[in-house]
Design brief:
The structure holds two protein chains of two kinds.
Chain A lengths: L1 E4 L3 H6 L1 H13 L3 E3 L9 H6 L2 H14 L6 E3 L2 H14 L4 H12 L1 E3 H7 L8 E2 L3 E4 L3 H6 L4 H8 L1 E2 L2 E2 L15 H4 L1 H18 L3 E4 L2 H14 L4 E4 H7 L3
Parallel strand pairs in A: 1-2, 1-3, 3-4, 5-7, 6-8, 6-9, 9-10
Helix pairs in contact in A: 2-13, 5-6, 7-9, 11-12
Chain B lengths: L9 H10 L1 H21 L5 H17 L1 H14 L3 E5 L2 H14 L4 E4 L3 H5 L2 H7 L3 E4 L2 H8 L16 H12 L7 H18 L2 E4 L3 E3 L4 E6 L3 H7 L3 E7 L3 E2 L5 H12 L7 E5 L13 E7 L3 H6 L13 H5 L1 H6 L10 H11 L2 H4 L11 H5 L6 H14 L5 H13 L3 H18 L4 H4 L12
Parallel strand pairs in B: 1-10, 2-3, 2-4, 4-7, 5-8, 7-10
Antiparallel strand pairs in B: 5-6, 6-9
Helix pairs in contact in B: 16-19
The chains are: A alpha/beta, B alpha/beta.
Chain lengths: 241, 449
């Protein structure tokens, strides 16, 4: 099966290892991975800020770059939700573009969604060690409705103990541009999140969105806590047998 | 429409609130309790089905609101109430104060009402020389402290028992005590005298029933009953969107509102008041006035944000809002705080006065998940940000950056150049601004620890 990989701008700029891990996983599970070179950003930062014109520019470009009919896999809940849920609204006054947006949304998958529903990676048996807790990011859970998939994958890692954190689906305070515009609140929320991570007793926290993980990583750094922060793709790639 | 002229400095207020340890512990504790009780109350009932029905009913009313309001006015009048219409806050204040002045009222007792907060009624009445006494325990505390409610259901949510003890000791001349039971008894004793001596009662309404002309009030402390039945004169102030079509539809909201607000299956009291006391009836005010207030609602109804008028003021959205539960309601400097508050305040006031509030959300979506009438709160918040951009209320640097982003997003080379520049420049920029300093210091940051 051939898939197109959208790395997202955050991974491209700061976390290339997550992109590499995701591609490794997809290949391991029998996918031919195509990386459309022209890809940039899905437009989410502009869209949540209310900059519709700019969001549309990015969306049009995305739709063009990924016009090939193969499924699109994205290692981020909020970017996947942007394409699936927000693109059609951006083009509500343009029938042709709206149809294209709806079509592209139907074949866009968040990574854990794809791994569980399409290649059934959770039935393959990963090998790991230590303990991990999971932060359920906002758009992933509440907009995409992806709640069980990441858990199924984490639970399938043999030798690694899963320790749920309380209020796992509570916002970590990232919120895109919110992190920069309201740093005080953002930091306080990340600190609260870190408290619950520490309370879980796990040595590693994982999640499906680098925005959140970046915010959590900052809280870990500020406190000097002994917690590893890893995107689910990296955690799984490290646990490949 | 509003008295405020300066920009609400939300970020400054929030930062101050974050440094207030006692506020933070009070807020996180209380919001946790209410959000927890709410989840429990909905645990074994078909919430999605209920809220779907309630949402449809609210939409039905809004679609034909003027008709329901007229219907209500006719039936309320028939039942013996005197119905007034007020276009805005000033008209409503004038109406109420004139009714009270005409009857030479000196003391008025109040049941909890957010709409009278919205129009600044207490201050106006006090300026006219009236004594105004809030009788809801939370409102009573807030009135003594000379503050405004920080939550629409739990006005003193930001106070802990020690705060209340200190307020009572300094305002009521009693010994300091922090036992809620004793404090409540103290308030009860003070209020009892007011209940018996007031010449008028003022309340809001949770709902108004068009087919019967009834006003419906949900309360817990019993003070609502006293305010609406003990004095000879009762004035209800309500905004027009509170209409329900029939009494038959009321139970749907009786089970949704308390569960969403406090996690109760029912409130202790549900008062359905239809007209003034008639001959032969044992209780009720002899004279009932109902002020139907528009105050911007008709305008909202015409626009793309009309769904906010479905709101039944349960406060569930604030209890789950990560920002609200951290900083409390006062940081917003609006009558209504939290997600529904940001939206309603933005629509009642102009963008110049409210635009910084649009940053008081992470768009996490929790509010939309708990709303018992399915107001698409996250969608409306995002849409308001769109309007803020259209009206030019975002910083110049942000607009420039977004424009550059939009352009670069279409040109991969430019975009990758910008990514490279960002990753090189951020560690350097981070030394100058705390906000940017929180971004990763170069690649492989995630592997650092």
């Amino acid at each position: 099966m051939r898939v197109q990989f959208f790395s997202t701008c955050l991974v491209d700029t700061f976390y290339p290892e997550t992109g590499e891990a995701a591609v490794k996983l997809l290949r391991r599970f029998g996918c031919e991975v195509v990386y459309p070179k022209g890809q940039t950003c899905c437009g989410k930062p502009a869209d949540s800020g209310g900059y519709v014109r700019e969001a549309r520019m990015a969306a049009k470009h995305f739709i063009k770059v990924f016009s090939n009919q193969d499924p699109i896999v994205v290692p981020s809940g909020s970017c996947a939700s942007m394409v699936k849920n927000h693109y059609p609204a951006l083009f509500k006054d343009d029938d042709r573009m709206r149809q294209k947006a709806e079509e592209i949304g139907q074949r866009t998958y968040e990574l854990s969604q794809f791994l569980v529903h399409v290649v059934r990676a959770h039935e393959q048996g990963f090998q790991g060690q230590g303990s991990v807790t999971y932060h359920a990011s906002c758009q992933l859970t509440r907009e995409l409705g992806v709640r069980e998939e990441p858990l199924a994958l984490i639970r399938s890692i043999q030798g690694m103990e899963f320790r749920p954190m309380p209020y796992a689906d509570r916002c970590c305070g990232f919120g895109g541009i919110f992190m920069v515009k309201q740093p005080e609140i953002s930091m306080a929320l990340a600190d609260d999140k870190l408290d619950t991570i520490i309370a879980s007793g796990a040595d590693t926290v994982t999640g499906c969105d680098h925005g959140c993980l970046m915010n959590i990583q900052d809280a870990v750094r500020r406190r000097g806590a002994d917690i590893k922060v890893k995107h689910l793709a990296v955690l799984l790639a490290e646990s490949l047998p | 429409m509003n008295f405020r002229t300066r920009v609400p400095p939300f970020r400054v207020n929030a930062a101050m609130a974050l440094r207030d340890a006692s506020l933070r512990s009070a807020m996180s504790h209380a919001a946790e309790v209410f959000a927890g009780k709410r989840s429990e109350a909905f645990f074994s009932v078909p919430f999605e089905e209920w809220r779907q029905e309630a949402s449809e009913l609210r939409l039905l009313v809004l679609k034909d609101l003027p008709h329901y309001v007229d219907d209500f006015a006719v039936h309320a009048t028939k039942a013996g109430a005197i119905v007034h219409r007020a276009k805005d806050a000033a008209a409503a204040r004038a109406l109420v104060s004139n009714i009270l002045k005409d009857r030479r009222v000196q003391k008025v007792i109040k049941s909890k009402s957010m709409v009278t907060e919205e129009i600044g009624l207490n201050r106006r009445l006090e300026d006219c020389g009236l004594e105004v006494v809030e009788t809801d325990l939370g409102e009573f505390i807030i009135q003594l402290a000379q503050e405004h409610p920080s939550h629409i259901i739990v006005p003193a949510i930001h106070k802990n028992r020690r705060d209340v003890g200190r307020i009572f000791a300094s305002c009521c001349g009693t010994d300091y005590c922090e036992d809620p039971f004793v404090l409540t008894k103290m308030a009860r004793r003070i209020l009892r005298d007011h209940f018996l001596s007031a010449q008028a009662g003022i309340s809001g309404a949770n709902f108004a029933v068009a087919e019967s002309g009834s006003v419906v009030i949900f309360t817990n402390e019993g003070n609502g009953r006293m305010v609406t039945t003990l004095p000879p004169l009762h004035i209800v102030v309500l905004t027009i969107e509170k209409m329900l079509p029939t009494l038959q539809t009321l139970p749907k909201f009786m089970r949704l509102l308390p569960r969403s607000a406090t996690g109760q299956r029912l409130t202790s009291y549900v008062s359905i008041i239809t007209g003034a006391r008639k001959n032969g009836e044992a209780t009720g005010a002899r004279e009932l006035h109902i002020v139907l207030l528009d105050n911007g609602r008709s305008a909202i109804l015409q626009g793309e944000f009309f769904e906010i008028l479905k709101c039944i003021r349960c406060g569930a959205c604030m209890n789950v809002c990560p920002v609200y539960r951290l900083v409390g309601g006062h940081a917003y400097e609006t009558t209504y705080p939290g997600p529904m508050g940001i939206i309603l305040s933005s629509l009642l006031d102009d963008m110049a006065a409210t635009y910084t509030l649009l940053d008081a959300t992470t768009l996490c979506g929790s509010c939309g998940e708990v709303c018992p009438v399915m107001v698409p709160l996250p969608k409306l918040l995002r849409k308001l940000r769109e309007r803020r951009v259209e009206e030019g209320f975002t910083p110049l640097a942000e607009r420039g950056a977004m424009m550059a982003f939009g352009l670069a997003a279409q040109f991969p080379r430019a975009f990758h150049f910008a990514e490279e520049a960002a990753h090189k420049a951020l560690p350097w920029a981070g030394r100058f601004t705390a906000a940017l300093g929180r971004l990763p210091r170069g690649r492989n940051h995630g592997k650092r620890s």
